[in-house]
Specification:
Number of strands: 23
CATH architecture of the largest domain: 3-Layer(aba) Sandwich
Shape: globular
Protein name: Acyltransferase-domain-containing protein
Radius of gyration: 29 Å
Membrane topology: Peripheral membrane protein
Number of domains: 5
Strand content: 5-15%
Structural class: alpha/beta
Helix content: 40-55%
Keywords: Acyltransferase, Membrane, Transferase
Largest sheet: 10 strands, mixed
Main location: membrane
InterPro entries: GPAT/DHAPAT, GPAT/DHAPAT_C, GPAT/DHAPAT_LPLAT, Plipid/glycerol_acylTrfase
CATH topology of the largest domain: Glycerol-3-phosphate (1)-acyltransferase
CATH class of the largest domain: Alpha Beta
């Protein structure tokens, strides 16, 4: 098989972008920087592979050096002593069998040695890197045949910061978006071609597979336990010391800030584990500084799209395995289009901390001394990075096509109309400050045709008509691409959906009516989107001005100083055009509104038969009920899209309802909850939230509320338990919330709000409460529990080591214990 070079394309920034020049490196060509004679994207021969920018890696003995440094850590030694002491004091067995503190320390060091081997990257073998470069070249060349696209200006800026990091021994912290397992390969491959030291990649230990894990480890991956481990001080200390060591040595680190792959196409809320360690290392002076590099990775076609769709619609997640990796080889022959990588402007973490401390409004803000302030700083840091990623993100041609197809009222669209709408959408994204993938001078029609070919499995083509008509045959899969666009127009989407209830009125009062609706929706959905900080009034004003300029709405101002004292209505031209633009914005948000409505109505499944009481239901059962309830409503015609029972969105909805106090969570079920006997207080006020959507110059979202801990069981809060007879006569705070959310649902045949429909829907919640998922076969249960069994076996191995140690001591002591043994 001939060796093929993956086409890395540093393409020209055109179409109202920045005007920077771009180059294209295709198969068999070299990219040369002006004024230089050598290939500047990476080593021109294998002899130059150590000639990269950054701290030294890939030398014999690298892993041994890291282990030696970790074993010298005083913090780790102290944690070992404390762990052994705790084990010694908590021993409850026979006194004669009690292990000595010295033995326990040795056992603890044995455990730490094993944990270090399971944790650290071992970038010692250059031959492995050579093999992986060859393999990744071929993988990317086959899968993404239209190349990897990068801006020249961003390459120059990145290499400038890399040289700064090398000269000052500062780590570069790469913080990418995470849509696919391909991300790992792409980032390392591009950095290798750019001649920048490969990063140490944070990965979950579920990827530490036989055969595959050691190769990934030798290419920079270090594996941490999945799930919470903050309650295990010894392991936490080990990971923190390892991160500190990497920062101290100036090694680059790659962290996926979302913690897991986004299966919906939009950014997930940040995970703060490793990010917290990096921030505190700089904050407390354990590392002098580091360089933050947010980046976005965009795909024409995400290879896991079909798998994501199955998981979100209720299928069990398939654990990573060697068999899964092998079966993925079938995708290598696919032609999945292009990849676009965009690097946000790097910055020093210390500079971010200084800026936040200076601009924080609360008195005596001191994150170095105050744990609460430190948490606020961390949340601000996380959302700042997400905002950087969003700002750098590229809207791919497939996202443009997918968005158009999913925002139509009709069954399909002709080719010429599709091209017109894609061109309009592209212009609007650029006008809003977004970035669209470089078309390279191609006509929009050609771009659309290429996009259609890349996502052909999700789009149907009706032939035998006067013109080709395209329609979505897999709308759920297409939603992953549409969701790349929504954050650009989130303000417009929320405002237009807020107008929905009174859209047929001649005029809507901006204040308080429209303002209250916008505040309610933005606060309800704040777990889904990244908002800009600032006053809600400013956002409503700016969004109305934008929509007025586009001819979507007509604003009649009262003439007083308050700009929000007027009224708004649909512009006559927009009505004449069939509400085309207005509908597009609404269609972007409606699937999320529908899902939150399903989640809220679905809480009636927690109500005990007849009302007045709420049962405790485990999280898995509740999610299964909600999905089956939503699926039934979809097939009965009450919901317009399968996204309304998307597992990820329903999960976010439950978390938000818990924050609002509608449901409460416990680690274990308790006694049945009784409804509040006295008149309940008004519902949580979502209408006058101070920070909702307005743009600003600080972090892209105000610090989020403390994260709600995961619970195993849920029940309704007493104030939200409906009274007896709620099915025949819907009432109570929970029903009021259902109706409030329902006001913003998609209009049309799926929107049926009369009493008969309400009673029927509530009766369905009783059926959902009694519904039991089909019992899995033995094989399915064994496969589903594979990860748990592997983890349990590791714990058992350690227990057996301890038991063996105790047995040896008993044998040495003799006596009754030995006889018994």
């Amino acid at each position: 098989m001939a060796y093929k070079t993956a086409p890395v394309m540093v393409t020209q920034d055109i179409h109202e972008q920045t005007g920077n020049s771009t180059y294209i490196l295709r198969e068999g060509t070299q990219l040369v920087e002006p004024g230089k004679s050598k290939n500047w994207l990476g080593a021109s021969s294998w002899k130059e592979e150590r000639d990269f920018i950054g701290a030294n890696v890939f030398y014999p003995g690298y892993g041994a050096d890291i282990r030696k440094e970790l074993f010298k850590s005083e913090a780790l030694r102290s944690a070992v002593r404390e762990y052994a002491q705790a084990e010694y004091e908590s021993y409850t067995g026979p006194p004669k069998s009690r292990p000595t503190l010295t033995v326990l320390k040795k056992k603890t060091w044995t455990k730490v040695h094993s944990e270090i081997n399971n944790l650290i990257a071992d970038m010692s073998n250059l031959k492995t890197l050579k093999f992986m470069e060859f393999a990744v070249n071929n993988i990317l060349a086959r899968m993404y045949h239209q190349g990897i696209h990068i801006r020249e200006s961003e390459i120059i800026e990145l290499k400038k910061w890399a040289r700064k990091g090398e000269s000052e021994q500062l780590s570069m912290i790469f913080l990418p978006s995470h849509k696919s397992h391909v991300d790992y390969l792409v980032i390392s491959y591009v950095l290798y071609r750019l001649g920048i030291a490969l990063p140490h990649i944070t990965a979950g230990n579920n990827l530490d597979l036989p055969l595959v894990g050691p190769i990934l480890r030798q290419c920079g991956a270090f594996f941490i336990r999945r799930g919470g481990w903050s309650d295990t001080p010894l392991y936490t200390t080990l990971v923190r010391e390892y991160v500190d060591l990497l920062l101290h040595r100036g090694h680059n680190i790659e962290v996926f800030i979302e913690g897991t792959r986004s299966r919906t196409g939009k950014l997930l809320a940040p995970r703060f584990g490793i990010l917290k360690m990096i921030q505190e290392s700089v904050l407390f002076g354990r590392a002098k500084d580091c360089i933050i590099v947010p980046l976005s990775i965009g795909y024409d076609n995400v290879v896991e799209t079909s798998t994501y769709a199955s998981e979100l619609l209720g299928a069990e997640k398939t654990p990573e395995s060697l068999a899964g990796v092998a079966s993925a080889s079938r995708v290598l022959g696919l032609k999945l289009g292009r990849i676009d990588i965009r690097f946000a402007k790097p910055y020093l973490l210390s500079e971010f901390i200084k800026r936040e401390v200076m601009t924080e409004r609360r008195p005596n803000f001191n994150p170095a001394e105050n744990a609460e302030h430190r948490q606020l700083l961390l949340q601000s840091f996380g959302f700042q990075v997400l905002g950087n990623i969003n700002a750098a993100s590229v809207v791919m041609p497939t996202a443009l096509v997918g968005t158009v197809l999913l925002t139509l009222r009709g069954n399909g669209v002709g080719r010429e109309e599709l091209i017109r709408r894609v061109e309009w959408l592209r212009r609007e994204i650029v006008a809003k400050g977004g970035t669209v993938a470089d078309f390279g001078g191609m006509a929009t029609g050609s771009v659309v045709d290429r996009a259609l070919s890349v996502i052909r499995d999700y789009i149907g083509e009706q032939k035998g008509l006067l013109e080709k008509v395209y329609y979505a045959i897999k709308p759920f899969e297409l939603s992953l691409y549409r969701n790349n666009v929504i954050n650009i127009f989130i303000s417009e989407a929320i405002l237009t959906v807020s107008m929905l209830l009174t859209i047929n009125s001649i005029r809507i009062r901006i204040k308080p009516d429209l303002l209250d609706d916008v505040s309610f929706l933005s606060q309800l959905l704040k777990g889904e989107f990244i908002y800009q900080p600032g006053k809600i009034e400013n956002t409503v004003r700016d969004t109305l001005n934008y929509l007025e300029d586009k001819g979507v709405v007509a604003v009649e101002r009262s003439g007083v100083a308050d700009e929000l004292s007027g009224t708004v209505s649909l512009a006559k031209e927009e009505v004449k055009n069939g509400r085309e633009t207005y509908d597009l914005f609404c269609f972007l948000l409606w699937p999320f509104v529908e899902a939150y409505w399903v989640a809220t109505v679905g809480l009636f499944t927690l109500v005990h038969d007849g009302g007045g009481y709420s049962d405790w239901v485990d999280e898995g059962t509740l999610m299964a009920r909600l999905q089956m309830f939503g699926k039934t409503l979809y097939h009965e015609g009450d919901l317009a899209t399968m996204e309304a029972y998307n597992k990820e969105t329903l999960k976010n909805a439950l978390a938000r309802l818990q924050e609002m106090g509608v449901i409460v969570g416990r680690k274990a079920p308790e006694a049945r909850v009784q409804a509040t006997p006295t008149p309940a207080p008004p519902p949580v006020n979502l209408t006058m939230a101070p920070n909702a959507l307005s743009p600003g110059k600080r972090s892209p979202q105000p610090p989020a509320p403390p994260k709600v801990l995961a619970h195993n069981f849920f029940s309704l809060h007493p104030d939200y338990i409906p009274p007896v007879g709620f099915i025949e006569q819907p009432q109570g705070q929970l029903w009021d919330l259902v109706e409030r959310i329902g006001r913003y649902r998609r209009e049309g045949k799926q929107r049926r709000d009369n009493m008969t429909v309400s009673n029927r829907v509530l009766k369905l919640t009783r059926l959902a409460a009694e519904w039991k998922p089909a019992r899995k076969s033995l094989l399915e249960r064994l496969q589903a529990s594979k990860e748990e069994r592997v983890e349990a076996s590791r714990d058992r191995e350690y227990e057996m080591e301890m038991e063996e140690s105790e047995a040896v001591e008993r044998l040495m002591m003799g006596g009754a214990s030995s006889a018994k043994l």
